Amino acid sequence: MAFEGLADDWVVWSEEREKVVLAYRPDVFDGAAFPAPCMPTLYLTKGRRSRHPGTQTRPSDPWVVTLYLEPEVNRSPDEFETRDAAEAGAVELAERFAAGEVDYRDIYQVPREDYFAKLDELTGRAD
């Protein structure tokens, strides 16, 4: 089964042949208390998401796992040679994120304190 061992706070949001989206706590980041675009997401893609629309992937393109906190705010991507390895990498990153082991503050240039406080609470980083 793909994404076996995925941390409980993460769900497979969509799955296609060359792209999978994992969403963190869609029950919280639903557009009410926090804007839906702020829902942490993990993208697993064949090639980079930033490639030009319509560009075909090549067999030599890596599988890429990217954590997004907002559409333009992301952690540097991790690259893998195979989809299986990328899935395992995504599960491991999701687990680390849910456990509070990913420092999302470093990703932002302009802090969003209310958002950070909620993520701290959800990931067990709150005092």
Low-confidence stretches: none
Percent strand equals: 15-25%
Q: What's the total number of strands?
A: 6
Mean pLDDT: 88
Shape type:
globular
Pattern of helices and strands: EEEEEEHH
What is the distance, rounded to the nearest whole angstrom, between the alpha carbons of the first and last residues? 36 Å
Number of helices: 2
Structure description:
- The chain has 127 residues and is of the alpha+beta class.
- The chain has one domain.
- The protein is 20% helix and 24% strand.
- It has two helices and six strands; from the N terminus they run ββββββαα.
- Strands 1, 2, 3, 4, 5 and 6 form a six-stranded antiparallel sheet that branches.
- The longest helix has 16 residues, at 83-98.
- The mean pLDDT is 88.
